[in-house]
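hey
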């Protein structure tokens, strides 16, 4: 029998640092029904894209959502999204407004030909490859108010947690399955 992801283990690891706020940065393009769920649950949340979005763009936009340990929305995100690259998790002491401003700086990048492109850093398949390529200065800028990033590994039975210590990226793998 295959191992299954233990949602309680995920929750325990995400909310492991006392007095931190835990946010999910969710990709509307991957998270089916996200806007409906956000409308229903009404968590503290904000879109990373600026201005009034057309409905098709709003559906695929990234949303920063404050999670609480024992609420239905958190359960839904962990049960349905884990292993399906819905997004990443962030632990911080900062509020939604400051965190949203911080992350908005990274949504667009310039290609070598000068063309602007969307940078989908909130996809765990992207972030877990991107972070180890960064210089210490880039890491400091990208982490900003973030204590740690957490996301699924290529093997969804593992949670990856990244943080900075002495200007160096640290990576931890945590098993989050049950037999």
């Amino acid at each position: 029998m295959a191992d299954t992801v233990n949602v309680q283990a995920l929750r325990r690891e995400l909310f492991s640092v006392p007095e931190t706020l835990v946010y999910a940065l969710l990709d509307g393009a991957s998270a089916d029904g996200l806007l409906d769920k956000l409308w229903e649950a009404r968590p503290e949340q904000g879109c990373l894209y600026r201005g009034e979005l057309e409905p098709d763009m709003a559906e695929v936009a990234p949303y920063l959502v404050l999670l609480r340990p024992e609420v239905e929305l958190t359960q839904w995100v962990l049960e349905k999204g884990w292993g399906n690259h819905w997004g990443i998790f962030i632990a911080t002491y900062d509020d939604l407004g400051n965190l949203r401003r911080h992350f908005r700086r990274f949504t667009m990048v310039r290609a070598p030909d000068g063309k602007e492109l969307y940078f989908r850093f909130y996809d765990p398949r992207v972030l877990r490859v991107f972070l180890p390529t960064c210089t210490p200065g880039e890491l400091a800028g990208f982490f900003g108010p973030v204590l740690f990033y957490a996301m699924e590994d290529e093997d969804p039975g593992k949670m990856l947690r990244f943080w900075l210590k002495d200007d160096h990226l640290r990576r931890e793998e945590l098993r989050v399955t049950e037999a």
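The chain has a mean pLDDT of 94. The CA atoms of residues 113 and 145 lie 31 Å apart.
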